[in-house]
Design a protein that fits this description.
Structural class: alpha+beta
Number of strands: 4
Largest sheet: 4 strands, antiparallel
Shape: globular
Helix content: 25-40%
Distance between the termini: 17 Å
Radius of gyration: 14 Å
């Protein structure tokens, strides 16, 4: 059962985002990027108030995703990424992105905090950051 409202086109957009942001991280890395996106929609908190749809989340400015600035994002969604997008839309979560609202790819190690948010862990090249349950209860 979906944890956010979506349609086929929005699911394809999320699938394109997963690929563009984390294809090099494999399926698990792409699922984690999806967790962050879905959490931003569910959370309605902090930097993501009134983000209620996949297009709003993907194109949020400031605070959106670098991948939308690259042509790779605009290529057709593949079935493999669409399946991954559906998994996160249906509520599948992967640690350390389970409750994360942010991620980035540092040149070195993951800082303990980033923009006052706590590091929840690293997967391959990406570091994930979570809000507190008090600041954003809907992602917990």
């Amino acid at each position: 059962m979906a944890v956010i409202k979506t349609n086929a086109e929005d699911t394809k957009m999320l699938a394109r985002l997963l690929r563009a942001e984390a294809e090099g991280e494999g399926e698990l890395g792409m699922l984690m990027v999806g967790n962050v996106g879905v959490n931003r929609i569910r959370g309605n908190c902090l930097d993501f108030k009134n983000i209620r749809s996949i297009p709003q989340m993907v194109y949020q400015s400031p605070g959106g995703f670098e991948a939308i600035q690259k042509s790779y994002f605009y290529q057709r969604a593949r079935e493999s990424e669409i399946r991954l997008a559906k998994r996160v839309i249906n509520g599948e979560r992967q640690h350390p992105a389970s409750n994360a609202l942010w991620f980035f790819r540092p040149a070195g190690g993951c800082p303990g905090t980033w923009w006052d948010q706590y590091n929840s862990g690293r997967y391959k090249a990406h570091c994930f950051y979570t809000p507190t349950a008090g600041d954003c209860p809907a992602v917990y």
